[in-house]
Amino acid sequence: MANQEEATARLERFLQWLQVNGAELRGCNIKYCDSDKGCGVYSSNDASSSDGVLLVVPLNLAITPMRVLQDPLLGSECRAMFTEGEVDDRFLMNLFLTVERLRKNSSWKPYLDMLPTTFGNPLWFTDDELLELRGTTLFRATELQKKSLLSMYNGKVKDLVKKLLILDGDSESEVSFEDFLWANSVFWTRALNIPLPHSFVFPQINEVQDNISMEKSSEASTDHGCSKAMINGKDVQKSEVKGNDIEVNGAELMSEQKDTVWVEGLVPGIDFCNHDLKASATWEVDGTGSVTGVPFSMYLLSAVQNSFPIEKEICISYGNKGNEELLYLYGFVIDNNPDDCLMVHYPVEAIESIPFSDSKSQLLEAQKAEMRCLLHKSLLDHGYFPAGSQKDKGKDTCKAVQTCNYSWSGQRKTPSYVNKLVFPDDFLTTLRTIAMREDELFKVSSLLEELVGTEGERQPSEAEVRAAVWEACGDSGALQLLVDLLHVKMTNLEEYSGTEDCDTELLEQEAHITGCPKEYIRGDTVNGSRDWCRCKKMSRNKWSSIVYRRGQKQLTRSFLKEAEHALQLSLSEDSANQS
């Protein structure tokens, strides 16, 4: 009861803080959802407003790198480091959040008190929970990221935070790595990529700035450079992650305002919207106030045709992301995620050990080779073994994978399977080059020499090099290498956790346990016995790990089946052409 009263008091303080600083809840409320999702945004009695605007937050209230550089406490130190190139804008955000979390009289306290204290991404897993990810891309990625963050904390953050706190008159507070880890997770789970008018980011000297009532330190300009690609990639892809990908209709803003600056930042209030594949709202920026009546504001706009039912949760879309990215960034997964992806890569370091590595490296560079490829689940719909509905069977609506069909000799025909090949040709081009035999390498050299001359009057184009490689090699070597890579990936995935059937059994047991009487879920003694295997409810982190790794096994198996079939067709056609 005491905890509930405290949570209610925190929420009231936050809502008052929002209103005092100009935010307007026009058709929604912010309230507690559950232990997994924390707080969310819900429709209120006013959600039927004709303009569909549900929430308006002045951008003066956003936390961005420019605000950090202008902060009276952090600004001087941060500007010096930023000017020297010692830190980037994301570091500034994480440093600011770490310091403000520890400051006893932080003007951001009502907001920071509402944020989660722990997160569901692998950086916060226990040692046992992390073991559930062994064999996956995320396991190694998490180890590397935690090591990097720890090095950054010990090498730069720890002493700097202490220094800043002492300057603020606080010599008692102790900073810990968990404080910095918390700040990092807050940023990655909540930051938005905001299209801001240039005049807002870089106001004229004589422009009168609106003050927010927090303190003079929080002035209007905000800036955070983040490329759109980084947002859409969070390519956990490579173990590198990207920021948040929120669906935002920036086209109109971009056309109306030529000078738009994309800035990463936290927008209190808007950032309490949870994710749903079918978003019921989007967020947009109102630079002039023509939509909301509040210039330089961000607003939440209803995306539904009819009015919201009262107390209906209002969700936005974080983008079409696979479970690997969702778990790495946000700490949750979606069972049977339609946007799931599989990362396949050829290790760069392995190229040095292959035959004719120097020549092949030059060819790879000339082709701007892609050493990794992200295979989206939807690609399988257009292959030989589609997993989805068969109602469109025989109807090829997929754009054919582009395969080079230029042939010097006229002997290399476009493969019959080209329209069913689900693997991107950019990656197959890389694999063709790596798998190339000595005689094929000689043929590529001869073909390119015909084009550019023996004296090398010009450099062959990327397209010409790709064409020569395809003419000399075909697809068999590349597909065999792809099959090998997928076999290795499946072996790694199954080594520690078994097959996807094993994962399915664990998830089905969990579903059964969730419906058990409460005493069984706790694992208490019932009728003189205790069955921990059946009765102990698994942690949310473990459940997320199993859902994620099962999806990876399913995708690997499906793409392996496609690769093996394509390989057999390629070998058959090669044999037919030679006979």
UniProtKB/TrEMBL annotation:
Signal peptide stretch: none
GO molecular function list: protein-lysine N-methyltransferase activity
Keywords: Methyltransferase, S-adenosyl-L-methionine, Transferase
InterPro entries noted in UniProt: Rubisco_LSMT_subst-bd_sf, SET_dom_sf, SETD3_SETD6_MTase
Biological processes annotated in GO: methylation
Keyword Zinc-finger among record annotations: no
Coiled-coil features, chain-numbered ranges: none
Official protein name in the record: SET domain-containing protein
Organism field: Pelargonium incrassatum
